[in-house]
Amino acid sequence: MLYLMDIWDAVRGxxxxxxxxxxxxxxxxxxxxxxxxERYWYMTWVVPKAxxxxxxxxxxxxxxxxxxxxxxxxxxxxxxxxxxxARMLIIKTLVAICxxxxxxxxxxxxxxxxxxxxxxxxxxxxxxxxxxxxATMPTLAGMVAAxxxxxxxxxxxxxxxxxxxxxKDKLPQH
Length: 174
Fold this sequence. Notes:
By secondary structure, the chain is mostly helical.
């Protein structure tokens, strides 16, 4: 229990050093990861069953060679692709927003520094350091959040493409 309190104190200290914008970065990061984990769960547990049902339905068809049958096959593949890509645009948007929110923190932190300089002068380095912290912490957090999102969303995207190609391969055309 003491260990968890130490972790919570460290997180709280980090968030206080980064200012209010850091909470916004944390919120966007949380939403991004919830959606990515949902997509991973969907790809691991739902997609195999759904694709197996599509293949079984296709193989149960008597006619698979006509133009009409091929359009049905294309429609099923298209629906599977649409289902797999359901939240990917939102995830990629959240990944792209993370550095922008970090830059917002940079701007607000620098405004704080300029405010201290205007009221206290340039001789109080301790007060200016707090503003510099407000400027750098959100930028760092936004970049780290974006990097983790880029890596895992790219892996998720490639996993989806592989699954879709496997589905196409299991639905013979002729």
